[in-house]
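Hi, here's the filled form for the chain we discussed.

Project: internal
Contact: R.S.
Residues: 108
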Amino acid sequence: MALREQSYLILLALSEGPLHGYGVIKAVRELSEERVRLGAGTLYGALDRLSGDGLMAVVKEEVVAGRHRRYYDLTGHGRAVLAEETARLARLAATAQRRLNLRPASEA
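And the returned structure, exactly as it came back:
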C-alpha cells in the first residue's frame, strides 16, 4: 500500500508512541525538515482517513485547560504498512542513487 507523503509522515510521527494533534503537526514539521506544514483541517482529514483504513486509532481522550484533546497511535496494521512503505522508499532511493551514480549518504 503506497502512502501519500503526508500520511507517511503522520504514521512515522506516531511510530514512537501516542501523540495529540498538535504533537503530530510538530513532529511532521520536524521529520520533513520544515518542508511539510500541516494545518488542522488537513491533519484531521488525514487522521480520519488513516483511522478508517485501520492504520491508527484514538487511544486516549482528555480535557486540558477546557479543551478536548485526543491521542492517536499506530495499530499493528499501521506499523506493518509503515514498515513496508519505508522499505519501498529505501529501494527507490537506492535505485535513484545507482542511476545518478551517487554514493549512498552513509558513504558520503
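Let me know if anything looks off before we file it.
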